[in-house]
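Good morning N.,

You mentioned wanting to compare the apo and holo forms, so I went ahead and generated the holo version with pyridoxal-5'-phosphate. This is what I fed in:
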Amino acid sequence: MGRVYNFSAGPAVLPEEVLKEAAEEMLDYQGTGMSVMEMSHRSKAFETIIQEAESDLRELMNIPDNYKVLFLQGGASLQFSMIPQNLMKNGVADYIITGQWAKKAFKEAQKYGKAVAVASSEDKTFSYIPDCSDLPIDDDADYVYICENNTIYGTKYKTLPDTKGKTLVADVSSCFLSEPVDVTKYGVIYGGVQKNVGPAGVVIVIIREDLITEDVLPGTPTMCQYKTHADAKSLYNTPPAYGIYICGKVFKWLKKRGGLAAMKEYNEKKAKILYDFLDESKLFKGTVVKEDRSLMNVPFVTGDADLDAEFVKAAAAAGFVNLKGHRTVGGMRASIYNAMPIEGVEKLVAFMKKFEEEHQA
Ligand SMILES: *Cc1c(COP(=O)(O)O)cnc(C)c1O
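and this is what came out, ligand included:
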């Protein structure tokens, strides 16, 4: 079997060009006689890799000079603790609960101070983004926290919340680099890269410099202080070197494809093919309110759990893999990240049409 169309939510599909390049360089990276996996993170070759990765990311996202870019470990989940440990100076933070990841972050923050859920869409199984135009933001809130794209439920903020002047912190794991962003609107943007950027093991944190201080909660481990990593340019200890190298290649791939504005256009085109079909299908239907639909994660159902299972199985046999919905939601979910080619979505829709014809009542 050759390569499949992989609709996994994460770890997820990577650009084939990047994988091929990495394969070519596996045994001998640019005349060093070794793989990037075998190289000192203090070597000249790796220094160039991490510096280029950072500068390419800065260019792609138009990151201002007063923001640091950190390549860290511990996944997006460790940020659920690092954010309160580093930012909860007043011991108060407001959370908007739009799904499981936001909820996990909220629960973790409760260990460190007063974390307040100022809005939630749990009443309708997180199928929408709550109105965030006039939230009861606490006067003392150190930050307002969102999960910008909800990987499991398939929703995305189309406008950022009005934080009433408070620092906005966003988990962008599943929409990282899928479209242009105005970094200046955030205090912290972070994401695990295994959804839309690279291999698991790297989390990228983009943080405004004034938020990086020694004034962290008592007992915060050295490894959990942003200052440790900012001062050491992400080389305080051994970083996830191979993962950073692959991320760097993905950044170059994105630049070659025209950057984030071009990716947005491509992603909109791809998502439209699938959503248009879901809107007209008599068998399949999307589970999210139209205005909050994600471009990256598209959940859908037939309304019959057995038929869902039959579809997932038949799709896998036809080369469309990892379409099963999250275990907490059921149904199906197609994750159509940057590296999913438009042909993958077109062929999936053709397959769904055929399945629908064969299963008409
Ligand atoms: C996958 C995911 C996480 C968890 O990421 P880990 O790197 O496994 O900790 C957190 N937030 C969002 C939005 C995700 O999609």
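The chain has a mean pLDDT of 97.

Happy to go through it together on a call whenever suits you.

Best,
F.
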